Amino acid sequence: MTRVLAIYNQPADPAKFDAYYYSTHIPLARKIPGLRGMRLSTETPLSIAGMAPYLVAELDFDSMAAFQAAMATPEGQATAADVGNYAQAGVTLVAYECKEDK
Questions:
Q1: For 67-79, what is each residue's pLDDT tens digit?
Q2: What is the dihedral of CA 70, 53, 14, 24, to 10 degrees?
Q3: In what order do the strands lie in the sheet with 55-61?
Q4: DSSP secondary structure string, 9-55?
Q5: CA distances from residue 54 to 8, 27, 77 in whole angstroms, order as listed
Q6: What pLDDT sits at residue 99?
Q7: Which sequence spans correspond to the domains of the chain?
Q8: pTM (2 decimals)?
Q9: CB contact at 8 A, 78 and 34
Q10: What is the CATH number of domain 2-39+61-97?
Q11: Pairing between β-strand 2-8 and β-strand 37-40 as defined by DSSP bridges
């Protein structure tokens, strides 16, 4: 499985960020073909080292190839292009292969 982790910095206007993120960006992201799951932090994450992020989002895809194919679609491109509309404070995006350790 491939997980995409989006770590958002503290926005200047959290209410404006939230309004846009939840009403516009999340509906765009949910349309990405091959998206298997999405989780969002429900409270401001606790920082173990460094500055605490404002929000963390996790998106799951079957594989790195599936993620790359999904991001090449019009829906994936629209979602990626939308990030600049609300994440002016910055975001760190990483994609990585993972497995569940039982």
A1: 999 999 999 999 9
A2: 10
A3: 37-40, 55-61, 2-8, 91-97
A4: PPPSSHHHHHHHIIIIIHHHHHTSTT--EEEE-SSPPPPSSSSPPSE
A5: 6, 20, 24
A6: 83
A7: 2-39+61-97
A8: 0.91
A9: no
A10: 3.30.70.100
A11: unpaired
